[in-house]
Amino acid sequence: MPGPIRAKKKARSPLYSNGTFTFVSFPEDGGVQIYPVPIRKFVREHSSFRTHLDPDWKNLTYGDKCWNRRGSALRGAAPGDIFLFWGLLWRMPNDGAQNVFQVKNKGWYLFGAFRIQSVLEPGTVLADSGLRVRDQKRIAHNAHVVGNRVEPKSEKRHSYVFVGDQKYSAKFSCAVDLGVGCQNSLLQHIVRTADGRQIQWSCAPQWNSVTRTCRAILYLSKSQDAQKAWDLRKAIRRVNKDYDLLESFSKRI
């Protein structure tokens, strides 16, 4: 479960009254990608219009620096595993009539999922990856790919690139409220500490420390986790009728 998207001082992702949202990627001075013009109103004027586009929803890839503590567990991710993406969204009144930086009402939401098709390790040359040319072309747009290869270990970035299965991966049409601060919320039900305790809002183990690093939260081979995965699937489908988190897995759970 990759960690939250945090860039509220420089950029904000708005959530509209019908549940749809606009994903605004991290601002990054010197970034290789540029915000599309329609997105720039969600980025502060004094900020660079350059961004670190991760995840790349158009091409369904995700890269991360897996040498640091926050992302180190991702080195164990394998094809067939599912990434959940979540972050802070700002609830817009009147569907965008107000400036997003004047909005005070916010919440944490799930907004997309990747089912891993392939994993590219640091330094992988795309042409030598064994992937189809059409997959190589979409990977080439990832922020962690320089030229025709994934950033190598020699640069100490130790970056991995994860390629989403186009059939089973998507940015959701509508965000899914995690219910942070609410008892018996989706987040409390689905996520536990590493030793199995329930996360708490105002005392240890607090939710924001439990979810700070990327880690596996559910194993479909365990019956209790499989039931939670099914509950998560239902919560997502409740507002995203066209997406099934467990498609092709469902009969085995």
Give a verbal description of the structure.
The chain is of the alpha+beta class. It has a domain at 13-177. Helix content is 13%, strand content 23%. It is built from 4 helices and 11 strands; from the N terminus they run βββββββαββββααα. It has helices spanning 133-139, 186-190, 207-210, 223-239, and strands at 13-15, 26-27, 33-34, 50-52, 61-65, 82-91, 106-120, 145-146, 149-150, 159-164, 170-177. Strands 1, 5, 6, 7, 10 and 11 form a 6-stranded mixed beta sheet that branches. A 3-stranded antiparallel beta sheet has the order 2-4-3, with no helix packed on it. The longest helix is centred in the last third of the chain and has 17 residues, at 223-239. The radius of gyration is 18 Å and the shape is globular. It starts with 12 loop residues before the first strand and ends in a 14-residue tail after the last helix.
